[in-house]
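User: Predict structure, ligand aspartic acid.
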Amino acid sequence: MKIFKTSIIFFLIFFAVNCNKQSSEKAILVIHGGAGWISKGTISEELENEYKLKLKESLIAGRKILNNKGSSLDAVQASIRILEDSHLFNAGKGSVFTHDEKIEMDSSIMDGYSGNAGSVSGVTTIKNPIDLAREILDNSVHVFLSGKGAEDFAIERGLVKVDESYFFTKKNYDKLIQVKMENQDIKEEKIGTVGAVAIDFQNNISAGTSTGGMTNKRYGRVGDVPVIGAGTYAENGVCGISATGHGEFFIRNVVAYDIAARIKYKNENIQKASRDVIENLKSIGGLGGVIGLDQNKNVVMPFNTKGMFRGYISEKGEPVVMIYGDQN
Ligand code: ASP
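Assistant: Predicted complex:
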């Protein structure tokens, strides 16, 4: 009898521990703030804390919407807007410079329920490109607007326009000068795009991504971020994905949709699908990572660089944020 009781207790403890393990990898919102060669010691502790605080703020704002029965689209947009307003990330305020010393931003958002999407590329004066992507999704017959047409549409829809000087940051300008001096094509050291994926109370999945692109890019260059299926994808019953990395590789390999297709047609789980896609990408020289959620709220955040600013949050509990490979 005693042996029986002891076994039951062991079983219960084992069960509780494993349940915990599983639940710690589930979430309703996952975000990233870019991947790159960021390893422990390359940024100061103070800056590290600044990044973590901003990631947490973004997660908490998105969760608030989801816990109030708001849509995953609204949560994704709100989380990304906070990161766009920070100088820390390469999106909105913190966007990097083109070769011509200008800012050209790309963004997209996708609704996994309707399959509708909104994308924008090459905008220079719209404070929050994610808001413009959302306006295109909600209020345009088109999916993708670029340049002047996109800016005009933003003004028609009453979005906030700012002077180009709003986007100036000394650190990004210095980075451009350094890349030019080193005669590099583009800078992929700390890439820095932002993105979010959420699932709401109606089980609808949405994903969004926003970026300034890559330092020293040629004017007019469009990366993967606004390309639906490359940098962003969402489909109810399958998954939501947002990517960050060297955009040309993500476009050529249709990364976000490739992960979804593996889940959909090969019955792979999101962990295997996303890990394999990111590993394959590395084998052909494509650096970066993705974040994703599936219909069962499983979180994935694989990357093939040294680090990736990332985090997730569940209905309750503290947000979890990480920067480096093995440790936080
Ligand atoms: N994917 C972005 C681009 O190529 C860059 C990034 O993720 O930081 O424009």
